Amino acid sequence: MAYTINKTDGTVVTTITDGTVDTTTSLQLFGKSYSGFGEGLNENLVKLLENAASTAAPTAPLKGELWFDTTTNQLKVYDGTSFKPTGGSKSSSSEPTSPSAGDLWHDTANDQVYVYTGSAWLLVGPVYTSGQTLSGWKIETLASSGGNKVVSSMYAGNTRVCIVSKETFTPSVTQSGFAEIKAGLTLNSTLSAVFEGTNTQATNIGVSSTTNTSGTLIAGGNFLRADAADTTTGALTVDADGGVIIGDAQELSITVSSNDVTVAQTSQDKDLSFTINDGGVTKTPLSFEGASGNIALTGVTTITGNTTITGNLTITGEFENSSSEINIVNDAFLKLNTGNSEADSGMIVETGDTDDARLFYDVSENYWAAGENQSYSQIIRLADAVADGNAAKEKVLKTTAAGLLTVTNVSLAAVGSDITSSTSTSSVSVPTTGQVAKSLKLWGGSTISDDSSNSIAGNRYVETSAPTSGQGSNGDLWFVREA
Predict the structure, then answer these.
(1) CB–CB of 329/347 below 8 Å?
(2) Which of 82, 113, 360, 411 falls 20 to 30 Å from 395 in CA-CA distance?
(3) Three-state SS for 212?
(4) Which residue did the predictor score with more confidence, 147 or 458?
(5) pLDDT digits (tens, 9 = 90+) for 149-186
(6) How far is residue 352's CA from residue 367's CA, in Å, rounded to a whole number?
(7) Exposure class string for 419-447: b at 16+ Cβ within 10 A, else e
């Protein structure tokens, strides 16, 4: 009697007649009274144990049948069309062939796991290859005095670049580059890491690496803008010799070279001016004129220290020197009233008198004059003096080449001392008429009286001829007159 073989779902696989063996499936199915039944049954059991392990798939598989592919070392199941891997991952350095959706593949070249989506292999992890070493985010637990803290660490090339934490703490185990971990994102201090890119808004900006003493976090609004006018309440330091450049055409620059400071107006023929607010009025007391290279001073300007001027100094208004020191002019001449019409000109010394004291050239008189309190007289030059007082009266006299003076008359007060003896000949003082008359009384050493008798100590004689030997006595005066 023939056997009818059914599958689990009730469908007939095959019908086996007595004494025969059926090979419709991967196993041998025996009919009644088949003589090789024992051997075939045992072979069927071995095939079941090894899941038909072979390099080739079973030729007559049933849906759900298992087959171990010895080429790929995978256990596969027949889905009614083909054998598919049953699960797990395939370890190989290249992508597996004929994959099915959900298959896993361990890439041994890069130590990464992929899953097959049905159309391509999708990386499951890790995101870095074995050659790239640990790179990307890694969830870690760090010990601290306040308990363990779960953090997210970002690695690049097996180096921890930053740590993200929900709270601030100090690790109890040393973490290179992270002495303290802040709430938020903390960068590795050993890398000198910085944030690069564009930020639309920052509530606070850390300045812990600076010398700011007000704190390590500064409100974002306290930083100067570079694209608009802004104000700072602190000192602005430019720690570079390149200094400061101002203007849309960079007209003004302040630079340093070898500790020398240069303030430059770089636009051709343009001025550099310094202005002040004087009672609400803008004034320019000092201006450097670009077109001429001159310095223009306006109003009251104070300059302290030594000043060297190369070129002409033109002053419109008064020149005032409040110093009590002596002013020194190295030039040989000091010229006044240059370029103007003739006018009295000279020096004025302030005194308590009207018009003070003056030394000036009197243009109308053509001579130098001096004086004070509006009373001035000529200053005499040698050219103003004459040698002949008779011919040029009211002039200052000078001697001739022989040392003589010519005058109409000279009146003298007492000059020198009276002659009291015949030995009084050493005096060079000019005598008066009275002194000369008195000296006549001492002629010969005796005094001649003025009585009318001429009787005292000598006589006076007036003759037309000179006295002869033996005439007269000691002390007599003898005048010879013309006949």
Answers:
(1) no
(2) 360
(3) coil
(4) 147
(5) 999 999 999 999 999 999 999 999 999 999 999 999 99
(6) 26
(7) beeeeeeeeeeebbeebeeeeeebeeebe
| Higher pLDDT, residue 298 or 251 | 251
User: Contact 134/155 with Cβ under 8 angstroms?
Assistant: yes
pTM value > 0.70: no
**Interval 5-32: pLDDT, tens:** 888 888 998 999 988 999 889 898 988 8
Place of tokens 């001449």: 333
- Taking the alpha carbons of 248, 249, 255, 257 in that order, is the dihedral positive or negative? positive
Report the alpha-carbon distance of residue 304 to residue 298 in Å, rounded.
Answer: 17
b (16+ CB within 10 A) / e for 30-61 = bbeebeeeeeeeeebeebeeebbeeeeebeeb
Spatial strand order in the sheet of 345-349: 345-349, 357-362, 367-372, 375-378
What CA–CA distances, in Å, run from 270 to 248, 252, 276? 15, 11, 19
Secondary structure of 233-294 in HEC code, one letter for each residue: CCCCCCCCCCCEEECCCCCEEEEEECCEEEEEECCCCCCEEEEEEECCEEEEEEEECCCCCC
Q: What's the DSSP call for residue 406? A: B
- Region for 426 from its dihedrals, namely left if φ exceeds 0, alpha if ψ lies in -120 to 50, beta otherwise: alpha
CA distances from 135 to 106, 140, 141, 154, 341 (A): 19, 14, 18, 7, 95
Q: In the 8-state DSSP scheme, what is residue 96?
A: P
Beta bridge partners of residue 286, listed in sequence order:
274, 297
Tell which wins on pLDDT, 478 or 383.
Answer: 383
- Give dist(CA 318, CA 199) in Å, integer: 62
CA atoms within a 13 Å half-sphere pointing along the CA-CB vector of 334:
7
Q: Is the dihedral of CA 234, 240, 244, 249 positive or negative?
A: negative
Compute CA 114 distance to the chain's CA centroid, rounded to the nearest angstrom: 60
> For the purposes of burial, counting CB atoms within 10 Å of the CB of 20, is it exposed (0-12), middle (13-18) or buried (19 or more)?
middle
Cα separation, 160 vs 155, in Å, equals 4
**pLDDT tens-digit map of 421-450:** 555 566 667 777 777 666 665 554 444 444
Q: Is the pLDDT of residue 451 over 50?
A: no
Q: How many helices (H) and strands (E) does the chain have?
A: 2, 29
Structure tokens, 265: 């107006």
Q: Are strands 149-156 and 136-142 parallel, antiparallel or unpaired?
A: antiparallel
Q: Cα dihedral sign for 123, 129, 135, 140? A: positive
Query: Helix H segments across 375-454?
Result: 433-440
Residue with token string 């995101």: 127
